[in-house]
Amino acid sequence: MVKQLLFATNNSHKLREVQEIIGTSFILLSLKDVSIEGDIPETSDTLEGNARQKARHIYEKTGTDCFADDTGLFIDALDGRPGVYSARYAGEGCSFEDNIRKVLAEMMDAENRNASFRCMVCLILAGKEHLFEGRIDGIILKEKHGTEGFGYDPVFVPNGQSQTFSEMPPYLKNGLSHRGRAILKMMRFLVQ
């Protein structure tokens, strides 16, 4: 029997990506599937804190084993920004496009284009928290390339690769990405 796992998100891009990573061993449920609407609190100044806060919030509401993630893009030339504020870097209600525009404008004259994507996943099983981290280093391009993915994918090229995450087929991106690495660590833990 295929198990279900509640992912504390209503982000359809993230849900699809994580389902592709975990394959058919689990069916992911989103917050919509358990009738939870609205924003989940994210008030920590760390990825770990936000992942824990989101997972705990949903676990307390549903009593169901669940997991949440928080992800950030950390750019050397911007002193680690956008970091934990990556999703709303250009302001509340901003789009992926707005965030990319702001980053590229701030990096216009930057020679150092090094950056890292980091993801923290908090899994709650029977009330106990388990943390999993994923990271990928790379560079920020001066313009967008590719049409797949979401967020900063069109401007991020992982070290050792020649394409942005947006130019890669999903199986390649998911095998390299920060989220893919964190989710695979969680899956190894779950199947033990």
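[next item in queue]
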Amino acid sequence: MVDGFLYGGTYLFVGAPKVGKSFFMGQLAYHVAMGIPLWDYPVRKGTVLYLALEDDYARLQRRLSRMFGVESADNLYFATQAKTLKEGLDGQLEAFVKKHRDAGLIIIDTLQKVREVGGEGYSYSSDYEIVTRLKSFSDKYAVCLLVVHHTRKLESGDSFDMISGTNGLLGAADGAFIMQKKKRTDNTAVLDIVGRDQPDQELMLEFDRERCIWKFKKAETELWKMPPDPLLEAINELLTEDNQEWEGTATELLKQLPDMQLQANVLSRKLNVANSQLMNDYGISYGNKRGHERKITLKRLLPQK
């Protein structure tokens, strides 16, 4: 599809709101439909279906006009409504690929618009099942399904831990793309890529605000580091040379960290996610004792940085 970048299968494309995901989807869709190289990546031309389920046709035309000076393109089809998977989305997609035998790329923007949540909510099994169902379709018809999704609000040292939902989404997919900005107002973004059929990559991109397209700046060899987490920084300051251990409830810990405007349950979730970063970056081990009251344990194992 896009050699060295995107292949057949089912992939997640994840980013925070307003990070520029939809512009990137429009750019990718146009390049594949027209067979135009994406930066230095060769593109195999094919019919594209873009399910822009949070847009309308007028907005899509304006976006395409600003980006490429056209309001439509051969081999590029838009839809602003679709059934959910439970209602028969896969049947709609099947009808499209049977009509368009050269279909190569289908974009679903966003996952939330086509999924359903049963009584079990967003469990690992339900997340795994929904992506597995999409993957069965992409494998059967040898197309690429690119599913746009959002990041969780809870930060993590590992970009791929920031995918909203459970690990079942990434576990069933062929790969994922994570688009992040250090600041929301930045023109630059980091695109982390991991997949079964290509080496892991990290690209630095720059947004052209005039044309609303993403330009390639460079490929990073070193992983881009998340900015320091204020919570972990505060815990690092809490454990001094004279007091290298702490134990208590999440509520009691918050009293020791007055600048942290968090609820106790949110604090516990953040620490559960960030425990490896706490150890790797600060040399502090984190534990969670079950009992009448759940106690958090913090212990410095390495000298303070």
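[queue empty]
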